[in-house]
Amino acid sequence: MNQTDSTSTDHQSPHYRIGAVAKLSGVPVTTLRIWEIRYGAFSPNKSAGHHRLYSHADAVKAGQLKQLCDAGHGISAIANLDAASLRRLLLPQHPSMAANGPRTAQGHTVAMAVVGLAMANRISTPKFTLQFLTHSIQVTDVFEDLAAAALAFFSDQPKILLIKVNTLNESARAQIESLAARQAVLQTIVVYNYGQEGVVESLKVLGMLVRREPLSDYELSDLLSSVLLVDASKSMGLSGANALIPARKYSDATLTRVAGISSNILCECPRHVAELIGQLASFEQYSQECLNNSAEDAHLHAYLRAVSGSARAMFERALEMVAVHEGISLSDDAAVAPALFPSQS
């Protein structure tokens, strides 16, 4: 990135030359000049050498103008709008980022802060979705780099921190750990181009998801979706708060048979999924018995049974997906009624 020697991290501080703005926003230099001279979209300062110097806000605005122009807006109508107005226009283009867009079962979107302009521009394009099952991700803050994020005030409390760095070294590791701790995020995802193996492993030990470029949009989407809590009732096509946890579908005999089948999947998914279903069904039955036997702890055991039953039903659905992938038959066992749950060790 061609920048001056300015070390200021103020987002209004002019320190980008026009070529850097073009690279970050995806807008050609000639177009940026037209937007500036003809429509007054930017008011860059001049360096001692008479080079135009743009701010971080200018670079973000250029990217926003491009997205809106690509969506059919005329540059003459939007060139002089402020950042808030541009953002309001952009929200309908990305329903998952809208304040009135789809909600989670709890009525909230999941807030995410993004470090890295190129990454922020990437996930804001129409071809990249931030809608995952019953969850929506709302990008609440975007920062140029780790240094800018470290000194900035976040507009919201992000649950996810998505970071893009070119080089993952000890200095970057320290900044990432400090930023994640300061913001108390629940999950940090780090995407990098080059990195030291020891640094990568140290971040993984902390529970962070760390992936190296190149990373396709599908892979990035999978990374984001992997940290989102799944609403079992909606993901299984059940409706509303009155949806009942479905009865157990597979007996111990079926699960034992599936667990013993040799699989082509290296991680032995059929065996692991079948064993998990058995364990969850056992705990579900245990919680049901406690619920029946103890009025004092009924609320707790009702909650535990609901959680274990929902998880068991979800894993049954997962087993069906694995069975289709592996060509395993699950049809030789009838569904087991809740009252006929066999005891499990």
Give a structural overview.
With 345 residues, the protein is of the alpha/beta class. It folds into three domains: 1-85, Multidrug-efflux Transporter Regulator, Chain: A, Domain 2 (Orthogonal Bundle), CATH 1.10.1660; 94-229, Rossmann fold; 233-340. The chain has 14 helices and eight strands. The strands form two sheets. A six-stranded mixed sheet has the order 4-5-3-6-7-8, with helices on both faces. It has a two-stranded antiparallel sheet with strand order 1-2. Helix 8 (170-183) links the parallel strand 6 and strand 7. Mean pLDDT is 76; it is low at 1-12, 92-107, 238-242 and 333-345.
Query: What number of domains?
Result: 3
Oligomer: single chain
Largest sheet features: 6 strands, mixed
Uncertain runs with pLDDT below 50, 5 residues or more? 1-12, 92-107, 238-242, 333-345
Q: Class by helix and strand content?
A: alpha/beta
Rg over C-alpha atoms, rounded to the nearest angstrom: 26 Å
Beta strands, count: 8
CATH architecture of the largest domain: 3-Layer(aba) Sandwich
Topology as a string of helices (H) and strands (E): HHEEHHHEHEEHEHEHEHHHHH
Fraction of helical residues: 40-55%
Distinct helical segment count: 14
